[in-house]
C-alpha cells in the first residue's frame, strides 16, 4: 500500500514538473516568434524544444514508462544540450545588468 502511494505521489510530482515546463514554453513562444529570423531565433527555438522533450520525459515517468534513473539521465542530457546551445551564442559569456 505504501509503495502505491509513493508511486502516485511521484507521478503527481512528475506531472507537476511537466506542467511547469509546458508553461515556460507556452509563455516564451510569442517572444521567440517576434525574434528576427536567424541565429538568436534558432537558439531560442532549440532551447524550447529541449524543454518540451524534458517535459515529455516527466510525463513518461509519471506513466511508468521510464524509471527515475532514466528520467535523471534524460534531465542531465537536457542540461548538457542546453549548455551547448548557450555556448553557440556570441552573448553567452556576456553578463547583463538591470540597466541592460
Please provide a written account of the structure.
This protein has 100 residues and is mainly alpha-helical. Helix content is 77%, strand content 0%. It is built from three helices and no strands. α1 runs antiparallel to α2 (39-62). It is elongated. The termini are far apart.
Order of helices and strands: HHH
- Total number of strands: 0
Class by helix and strand content?
Answer: mainly alpha
Coarse morphology: elongated
Q: Indicate the proportion of strand residues.
A: under 5%
Number of helical elements: 3
Low-confidence stretches: none
Radius of gyration: 17 Å
The average pLDDT value, as a whole number, equals 87
Q: For this entry, what is the oligomeric state of its chains?
A: single chain
Largest sheet: none
Distance between the termini: 55 Å
- Helix proportion: over 70%
Supply the key terms.
mainly alpha, 3 helices, 100 residues
Topology diagram in text:
Elements: H1 2-34, H2 39-62, H3 68-87
Helix pairs in contact: 1-2, 2-3
Task: Provide a compact summary of the structure.
The protein is mainly α. The chain has three helices and no strands.
Amino acid at each position: 500500500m505504501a509503495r502505491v502511494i509513493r508511486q502516485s505521489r511521484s507521478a503527481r510530482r512528475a506531472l507537476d514538473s511537466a506542467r511547469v515546463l509546458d508553461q515556460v514554453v507556452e509563455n516564451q513562444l510569442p517572444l521567440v516568434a517576434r525574434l528576427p529570423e536567424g541565429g538568436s531565433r534558432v537558439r531560442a527555438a532549440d532551447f524550447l524544444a529541449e524543454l518540451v522533450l524534458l517535459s515529455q520525459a516527466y510525463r513518461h515517468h509519471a506513466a511508468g514508462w521510464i524509471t527515475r534513473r532514466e528520467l535523471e539521465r534524460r534531465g542531465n542530457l537536457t542540461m548538457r544540450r542546453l549548455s551547448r546551445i548557450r555556448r553557440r551564442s556570441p552573448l553567452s559569456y556576456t553578463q547583463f545588468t538591470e540597466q541592460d
